[in-house]
Amino acid sequence: MPRPAVDYSLYYVTGRALLPSSSDPDYYLRHLELALKGGVTVVQIREKDVDGGEFYDVARRSKLVCDRYNVPLFINDRLDIALLLDCHLHVGQSDLPYPLARSLLGPDRLLGVSVNTPAEMQEILDQPKGTVDYVGIGPCFGTQTKKNLNPIVGPRGVRDVLQVLGESEIKAVVIGGITPETIPNVLAQTPAPLAASATSPPRYRSLDGLAVVSVIAASETPDLAAQNLRRLFDQRPDFANPTSQMDAEAIVQVAAELVRLLRSEEKKPLVHHITNTVVQNDCANLTLALAASPIMSASPIEAPSLSKLISCLLLNLGTITEPVLEAQKIAGKAANEGRKPVVFDPVGVGATSYRKKSAGDLLNACHVSIIKGNAGEIGALAGLSEVQSRGVDSVGKGFKDPATVVRTLAAREKVVVAMSGEVDYVSDGTSTFAIENGSDWQGKITGSGCMASSAVAVFAGLAHESGNLVATIAGLVAINVAAELAAARSSVQGPNTFRSALIDECYNLTAENVLKRAKVRRV
User: Is 450 a catalytic residue?
Assistant: First the structure.
């Protein structure tokens, strides 16, 4: 008999310990039935602290309820109970070895396995086809419902496992700290890009479901809790990008219109900067010069309130400390909830392991819209060593194939990636453009890259008018054209006079300047 097809969308791992202590023995069953009515598609019985007789009784009664709703029931670890009740089985890495579990379980029942690392996923793929039916990846976040947790992997760690899983028929759910608050970020970050040509849109391996415990088990209305979880999963993003097919000329036209819109003061983006102390004044003045408004606040307390007012959030890794990093996480989550674009400037991310870990923690905590960095920073995020960093600066001539670097990173992160340099490269994972404007003076002042990120954030504040790809290109074109105009001034005699002239030329920038001077090409 073939194994049943299963919808893993909402996988409920029961947690009787979370039910009210005063509840009668049948309360658990009524609670379970409400969860099934609310949309739970799979149930697993996990009873780590009871004897075999009680485990068997709970599983037997649970199966009667699940059978009424045609929902498959998995037993955690206890092969004997799974066989006695004709249920499916789930095992962890430290439980019964899954090849042995499969041989004892037989060919007709489903087998799931917990996975924490890409290596564990590869070991499963190396088994004969059909050994394992699904994997539970995690823990994604910390949780109070399970002792002796494996290392927390975060959404990006889940993505790494899905990358190995690839196009396998094995299904995948995520577990560990999955709540209505974390689900949007998990669904945005976990899809892993599959192999695709440089000219075709990226394809992704995504999760097949969410595994939850406390959100349902601790709820007095498990049917409503399940309905909400199903709604969040069913609304997962598809990462379509409507601007991908625009040509360079059309993008320049839109960039010019965005400059005109800023100058008209019909739109005045409010950009929240949590940036490094070296460049705060310059970034604030440049934001003002582009006819936007800056707010330079690193307070975690007011970040949620500010998220309701801002047009864009800019997170800069420059002078990172634990309090600043925590503020950036809180602000990023609030911006995500408010659907506000987030620009991330990973300043010096390749310089130290602390910076790299901080960047990873931040990117696990919130989903950014645009990543803008120099070659060393983009290379560090991409896991490449072709270009090194010295402090916050790149070392060397850059990548041999920069377009592929930014395209690949953009596809992996599902964001727009901009890499600054002698030529700037911008990609959304499908379309990639080169920007050949700018001045050598930009590399001779501290904070020019951070100011460029501020320019990107200003235009990202208008992304609802253009999309993030065009907004990013527009921001870089704007500051680079202004840099060319500043460098041409006779008053520019060195780095400091160039800095002042750059802000002045951003203030004087017109749509006509952009149309006349922009050098953008598709690559």
Answer: yes
Reading the block at residue 7, the tokens are 């919808």
Q: What is the pLDDT of residues 282-331, one digit of tens each?
A: 999 999 999 999 999 999 999 999 999 999 999 999 988 999 999 999 99
Pairing of strands 342-345, 192-194: unpaired
What's the token pair of residue 96?
Answer: 């019964």
Specify which residues 343 forms β-bridges with. 314, 370
Q: Name the active-site residue from 66, 140, 366, 450.
A: 450
Average pLDDT, the chain: 92
Q: How many CB atoms lie within 10 A of CB 458?
A: 34
Nearest to 190 by CA among 126, 141, 132: 141
Average pLDDT estimate for 126-144: 94
HSE value, Cβ hemisphere, 13 Å, CA-based, for 263:
15
CATH entry, 248-522, from 3.40.1190.20, 3.30.1490.20, 2.60.120.10, 3.40.980.10? 3.40.1190.20
pTM for the structure as a whole: 0.88
The secondary structure element, H or E, covering residue 111 is strand 111-115
Q: DSSP letter string over 11-40?
A: EEE--GGGS-TT--TTHHHHHHHHHHHHT-
CATH 3.40.1190.20 residue window(s) in the chain:
248-522
Is the CB of residue 112 less than 8 Å from the CB of residue 43? no
Under 8 Å between Cβ of 329 and 335: no
Query: What is d(CA 519, CA 252) in angstroms, rounded to the nearest whole number?
Result: 9
Asked if the bond preceding 139 is cis, omega within 30° of 0, the reply is yes
Domain(s) of CATH 3.20.20.70: residues in the chain: 10-234
pLDDT digits (tens, 9 = 90+) for 117-127: 999 999 999 99
CATH pick for 10-234 out of 3.30.390.10, 3.20.20.70, 3.40.50.300, 1.25.10.10 = 3.20.20.70
Q: What percent of the chain has pLDDT over 70?
A: 93
